[in-house]
Each structure stands twice: as structure tokens, then as C-alpha cells.
Amino acid sequence: KLPSLALHPVITPELVQGRVHLKCSYRSPSSRPPPRYLVAWSRLSPPGKKEQIERDTTLQSFSYIEMNGVNLRLGDTVFCTVTAFSRDVPEPQSLPEESKGFYAGIKFVPESLRIAEDGTEYALTILSTVPIVCPGHDDSCKITLQLSTEDLDSEFAGLPNVALSVCRVELPCSGSRCEAATLTVTAVTDFAQDGNRVSRIAAQPLGQRDLLWRAYTPCGVKVTVQDLPTGNCYSFTDPHIITFDGWRYDNYKIGTFLLCRSESRAFEVHVRQWDCGGRRSSTACNCGVAAR
To answer: Nearest Cα to 28, choosing from 63, 65, 64, 62?
Structure first.
């Protein structure tokens, strides 16, 4: 029975001579002489199958692989599996230990959103898990992402269901670390009983000359918008008024009146009432409305 040496392999990104590499680090057991390691790199292919892309034999407690855009691309989920061998014996000294999957590319946190048509703002964080390489190989660099929204239900194509606080974000990077950007997502209150709708927030890298980024389209964020009943108020006939909370009033006067105003945003409705009863009765009727 082979023992587990608790190697605990972990993948981290690094810039090595101006190129993006992934580094698999693992613990070195205290055995003498130190063992040699077989590091097998693999990625998750689109059908969901792991495919091995490289093997490395080393005496070091780490191993590198370059993201060259050919056998390892942005959008891949990468794993490294480490097995320890005695220097003298070809048989393995330990069980193979696999790292957690490392997603290389643009990541959204959370990966999906469920929001409601109630005006609440939801935070969405965008980050790059790998460093950005600039043409001059500068230590300081950034990537710009153009954001867009799309309704996944063809019946509502062209009708926005999600609003973003910004349409473009920048992720500044220094060395092997990149800062994250945060924006807010709000459901559009459409005053329609159209059921729960699903939208997608997409991000597209802009102006990247690096081949690694030019061929990459990040995965979007699925946003489910919960439809909520909308409050209604009425002013009708001569005129009778029913407020949002169901109270009933009559207003027979002639003039221009403030019908509704929000205390939290720029929204108000004015109504104009003219005489429509003639000489026999003093009755006013709605004749115009203005809203902003």
C-alpha cells in the first residue's frame, strides 16, 4: 500500500520573463534523500473530460507550465497531479495527489445572480485570475472589459431586463497580481407581468494585442430576474383617486395637481383637471398628465 505524503499541490499564476505561466507548488517530505517528482498537467476540455497536456520530472518542489494559447488557453480549468518517487527505485513512493481546478481567465463573483424587480442593487465583482502582459513587458498594465446585457428569451429580445452601473471596467495589474473591479446590477422594473426572465451579462476584452487575449471570450454571468407585482394607483372619471395603498379620494377641483412624487428618486406625476360639468354641476375631469 502506497502512503499519502500530504503533498497538497496548489496552482498559482506567475509572470516569467514577460510570459504567463502557471506554477504547481507542493510540500516536500522530510525523507532522505529527497524524492523526485512526476508532475502531470491536465485541463478540462469542453465536453467535461480531463486531457493530459504535459508531464514534468523534477527534483524541485514546484513545476511551471506556460500558457501559450495552443495547448493551454484562457478559459481552461487546469489541474496538476504530483507523484513522489525514490531517486533509486522507479516505483512510486506515494499516491498521486491532484490540485484543485484553477480557472485561467476572467472570473465573475458570484458566478450567477438571482435578483428581483424591487430596485435593490446587487454587487458583482470582476477579476482576472492570470496577470496581464503588455506590449512593452511593463510591470504595470491593465485590461479593459466592455460589458453588455442580453435577454436569453427570444420573446423579449431588445427589451432590457438588467441595468448595470457601468458599461466598461478596467482591471489594473502589477506583476503577477491584478486588482478586481466591482459594479452594481439592478433589475429593470418594467411594470409588466412577464414572469421570471433570464439574462446574461457578457464581458469582452478591448484593445488587446496579446494573442492569448485576442482569442478569448470570457464566460458571462447568468442573471435570473424575479417578476414582482407592481403597485398601481388610479385617477379616473370626475376624478376618483385610488392610491398605491388602496385609499380612495375624490377631487372635484379645477387646476393642476401633484398626483405622485417619489422621495428617493427623480419621479413624479402631475395631473390637470378641467371643468366638465357645465353650469349645473361643479365637476372636474382629467384632461392631461405629465410625468418624469
So the answer is: 62
4: Cβ contacts below 8 Å, ≥ 6 apart: 94, 95, 97
pLDDT at 156: 67
Distance CA 219, CA 212 (A): 16
- What is the domain partition of the chain in residue ranges? 10-103, 106-226, 234-291
Name all contacts of 84-90 with Cβ < 8 Å and 24+ positions apart: 84/5, 84/7, 84/29, 84/35, 84/36, 84/37, 85/35, 85/36, 85/37, 85/38, 86/35, 86/36, 87/33, 87/34, 87/35, 87/36
Phi, psi of 154 (to 5 degrees): -60, -25
Strand 10-16 versus strand 62-66 pairing type = unpaired
First to last CA, the chain: 76
The CATH fold of domain 10-103? Immunoglobulin-like (2.60.40)
Q: Say how many CA atoms lie within 13 Å of 160 toward its Cβ.
A: 11
Q: Which grid coordinates are listed for 234? A: 388610479
| DSSP secondary structure of 9-38 | -EEEEEEETTEEEEEEE-PPP--SSPPEEE
Assigned CATH for 106-226 = 2.60.40.10
Tell me if 97 sits within 8 A of 8, measured CB to CB: yes
**42 vs 49: CA distance, rounded Å:** 10
DSSP 207-251: S--SHHHHT-----EEEEEEP-PPP--EEETTTEEE-TTS-EEE-
Q: Grid coordinates in use for 84?
A: 513522489
Segment 32-84, tens digit of pLDDT: 777 889 999 999 876 778 899 999 999 999 999 999 888 899 999 999 999 98
Backbone angles phi, psi at 213, to 5 degrees: -90, -30
Entry pTM? 0.75
